[in-house]
Amino acid sequence: xxxxxxxxxxxxxxxxxxxxxxxxxxxxxxxxxxxxxxxxxxxxxxxxxxxxxxxxxxxxxxxxxxxxxxxxxxxxxxxxxxxxxxxxxxxxxxxxxxxxxxxxxxxxxxxxxxxxxxxxxxxxxxxxxxxxxxxxxxxxxxxxxxxxxxxxxxxxxxxxxxxxxxxxxxxxxxxxxxxxxxxxxxxxxxxxxxxxxxxxxxxxxxxxxxxxxxxxxxxxxxxxxxxxxxxxxxxxxxxxxxxxxxxxxxxxxxxxxxxxxxxxxxxxxxxxxxxxxxxxxxxxxxxxxxxxxxxxxxxxxxxxxxxxxxxxxxxxxxxxxxxxxxxxxxxxxxxxxxxxxxxxxxxxxxxxxxxxxxxxxxxxxxxxxxxxxxxxxxxxxxxxxxxxxxxxxxxxxxxxxxxxxxxxxxxxxxxxxxxxxxxxxxxxxxxxxxxxxxxxxxxxxxxxxxxxxxxxxxxxxxxxxxxxxxxxxxxxxxxxxxxxxxxxxxxxxxxxxxxxxxxxxxxxxxxxxxxxxxxxxxxxxxxxxxxxxxxxxxxxxxxxxxxxxxxxxxxxxxxxxxxxxxxxxxxxxxxxxxxxxxxxxxxxxxxxxxxxxxxxxxxxxxxxxxxxxxxxxxxxxxxxxxxxxxxxxxxxxxxxxxxxxxxxxxxxxxxxxxxxxxxxxxxxxxxxxxxxxxxxxxxxxxxxxxxxxxxxxxxxxxxxxxxxxxxxxxxxxxxxxxxxxxxxxxxxxxxxxxxxxxxxxxxxxxxxxxxxxxxxxxxxxxxxxxxxxxxxxxxxxxxxxxxxxxxxxxxxxxxxxxxxxxxxxxxxxxxxxxxxxxxxxxxxxxxxxxxxxxxxxxxxxxxxxxxxxxxxxxxxxx
Length: 862
Description:
- This protein is of the alpha/beta class.
- The chain folds into 6 domains: 168 residues, FAD/NAD(P)-binding domain; 178 residues, 3-Layer(bba) Sandwich (FAD/NAD(P)-binding domain), CATH 3.50.50; 82 residues, FAD/NAD-linked reductase, C-terminal dimerisation domain (Enolase-like, domain 1, 2-Layer Sandwich), CATH 3.30.390; 68 residues, BFD-like [2Fe-2S]-binding domain (Arc Repressor Mutant, subunit A); 66 residues, no CATH class; 157 residues, Sulfite Reductase Hemoprotein, domain 1 (2-Layer Sandwich).
- Strands 5-2-1-9-24 form a 5-stranded parallel sheet. It has a 5-stranded parallel sheet with strand order 14-21-15-16-17, covered by helices on one side.
- The protein is elongated and about 100 Å long.
């Protein structure tokens, strides 16, 4: 048996690790002794998902493709966290971090690094010994790092101190609050610093910059995007699409500044703002730089390999040295460097084929650029040219600004040269097929912009060739998905876990599901997770409640530790928090990061990042003194809008986060809970006091209901109403719970009504004689709903799912013998109620209303 050759790979990123995977898949483990150098102390992870880690919707461990154990299992020697310092071509050695590795074949996959523009004031001052000097407020632009001034050879910023917010270059350290966005460490630093709150600015309006902005927005910061160009994502989009994207993301609450050249970062040791070339400035406490990337070529330059923009390679991915190859973002092929992952997968496959002899004559001839992704949750597909460059080119346009939809085709000689689909990518698969095959297009171009009237999803995927790439993020073809289904992956989760399709940005997941249905048919397996109460804990609600009670788990983190193997799922936290509060009441251990921003600050966030405050007005009955207080607060805090709500309350809209404690203090009224999954309001009609038709005192009963059940949490929000007669002016029969007065002084208690996107008349639960009976059965139904409903399931769905007959047997007839316990449990919830606006006097968390601290700090630092 021939001795194995030594193959050294510099770079453990998406290209380097994918190349090794491709090599192993072709039997390369029997031909090569594989050694890898990775700049970070981790296994390989999916950089496309870093925005999810930053926003808190994913955990870091969720994005790993190959954990460290994978390298051991495949007999790969990985130097994790070891920086290569140089390549000795004469001795055929790679040297770095005190390590010397000999090679027969060498693959360079060093990727790219964030480009840091020459902006004054980026860094704190250090003397030659590394000691911190006092320095000036601004460093000179001439001192800003070039590509060659990065520490080490990966040419990216690296952590060199434990202080949050600092990244070190050669004798230079970013000011506190300045970050780049490229690695897991960057995410951790940004997320930690973001806990201080305040205002954040992202320099750069490309894809990564917008994803960074989304992450900061999700963490509760006032977020601004500063972009040098006249429209966003100019590399992928044309001007009209870029401006439409701006409107869409501004509706989410992000402020966009276009045509702004940042000249300086203000502040001495900590960021206080940005200075622009036009003389204007933006106050902020945090800056994330996402101004593009540059290929990491320094190692190749110092090894005297041919380097232009990237490391020059031929069609076999070979550099100017026959035993050295380059793949990924650092490689330049036929004058092109690529930043999308699909070309990287094509390159690694070609190189793996050649080195293993699996397809020894494989060549890479370049890639037709196309991608399908989500930008801040907005669907986007782009391919080929974005502008018509010749007069004989046809441009087909469809624009619907109110919905954020933009579609553009570039056609020449009946073939598709390029396309942009923003906001609606339903025909992306058909367009991509036409683009890849250079197929003749139908004369009716509308067929390419809109789904055909008789077209189903399966018909569109049937037409795709087996080699068509379905998942751009992970390079998964239609054929690979079909083969995985045939091999037994008949549930969506199993299919995605096996092939990695749909585990990137998620844009391709509907297509993956269509392929699953097409290939599996009746063999398609039900997802076990469909029965889980929350996705991160593999238990149905009754089993989850039983386990929580048996183990005495009173915090979200305790549930994850005991019932989810220590894996914390961000999407499950809010549901668990609500359930735990339902189970334990006053004993529940509140953890700040387990709640949505609304629940953390007890107000409803608006699209401009201000908040609305709805004080509780019992039964909708107010007084002149109460109205004066509300008016005084609105004037004192410059409230932009005061509105009467549909639930007979007064809503104060546009309040700044830092003003919330003062607003509550001055109002002196309890919270109306308009921001959380809880009992909101009980709408009432005039009742018997003034109405000539009234047969029941609806106001008195409504006030009793509100005072008893205020603030109690549920799987979803809960709205109520009391009507003083069957005319139903307060719309009680379309509420979650309603009480309707009828002749004889009796009350009909109805449940499961709806009047939103779904309209449903409530079902009659029972008829009672007194207010006390009404309160008893309403409370009993509430507790049963709390225990039986799925998270985010409204009462009307629960009632339909369980059936009103069963609910009536349990609540009224006590068929299961639990009525007394239900009564006791709802009473415990009532007894545990504390008005959350009392935190205006003593906040539970120091950073809860951090903008107050942040604004003070800004003054102190100037």
